[in-house]
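User: Design a sequence. Structure:
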């Protein structure tokens, strides 16, 4: 998978870590949230890592702090696009 990735939110609790990222898969033209979980076992068996892909709408319906960051990021992307479009429109006119 080729893609663009932007970190959204990270949570650390001792040996456990969660990382959420907004990902755009350029091969499939798909936007989703990736959740990577790393769990540590203090008894010596090491760490395990798992990853889930969450559709953007489903992620926004979950409770948590990463949703606010996703909304802020999406808003900024569209505001930048609108500003660029206006500048282009005035340059063409």
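Assistant: Done.
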């Amino acid at each position: 998978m080729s893609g663009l990735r932007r970190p959204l939110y990270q949570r650390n609790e001792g040996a456990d870590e969660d990382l959420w990222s907004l990902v755009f898969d350029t091969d499939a033209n798909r936007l989703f949230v990736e959740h990577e979980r790393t769990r540590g076992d203090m008894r010596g068996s090491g760490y395990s890592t798992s990853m889930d892909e969450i559709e953007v709408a489903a992620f926004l319906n979950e409770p948590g702090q990463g949703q606010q960051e996703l909304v802020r990021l999406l808003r900024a992307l569209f505001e930048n696009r609108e500003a660029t479009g206006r500048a282009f429109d005035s340059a063409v006119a």
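The beta strands are 3-13, 16-25, 30-41, 46-55. Residues 66-92 form the longest helix (27 residues).
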